[in-house]
Amino acid sequence: MPQTLRLLAFGLVLLAGGAFAQGAGVGFGGLKQDPGAPVSIVSDSLSVNQSEGFATFTGDVLATQGDLRLAAAEVTVRYVEGSQDIQTITATGGVTLTSPTEAAEAKEAVYTIATGAVEMTGDVLLTQGQSAISGQRLVLDVRTGLGRMEGRVQTIFTPAQGQTGAPAP
Questions:
Q1: Is the pTM here over 0.90, yes or no?
Q2: How many CB atoms sit inside 10 A of residue 74's CB?
Q3: How far apart are the C-alpha atoms of 18 and 38, rounded to whole Å?
Q4: Closest of 12, 15, 6, 7 to residue 159, by C-alpha
Q5: What string of DSSP letters covers 126-146?
Q6: What phi and psi, each to the nearest 5 degrees, are found at residue 31?
Q7: What is the Cα–Cα distance from 169 to 59, expressed in whole angstroms?
């Protein structure tokens, strides 16, 4: 699916107003996740470097953990030294992070499994329905569903039908 179509297809919980700001706290209830849940990754190819403790998946990569889905052109998984536990997942190339109700897109994302922290950078776009928020950096805690958008944040908020008192179009 082309990048622009994916941008229109995904949703996230947004701020309840405000057009421009330098930084914005954002709630992401639908992206809450258990960092201890198993991680599954599928791709076109896999390259493993056991001595350095990482594996690189390339080509139509899809990583899932519970209801979270991370899609990208390339994903590098770094393991905790001396174990098979995943330390971080770094995704590059058209990164999309989705849950059943929400999603985000960026150029790169780093997911630290133990802490549940996701940092998305580079033209980050979040949408929910017809509302949207964009910026250059999103730091998200998938355990709590709380996040912060930074870098010339722009928000477009579309109230739910019936909240404005005006008739729906």
A1: no
A2: 18
A3: 38
A4: 15
A5: EEETTEEEEEEEEEEETTTTE
A6: -100, 15
A7: 42
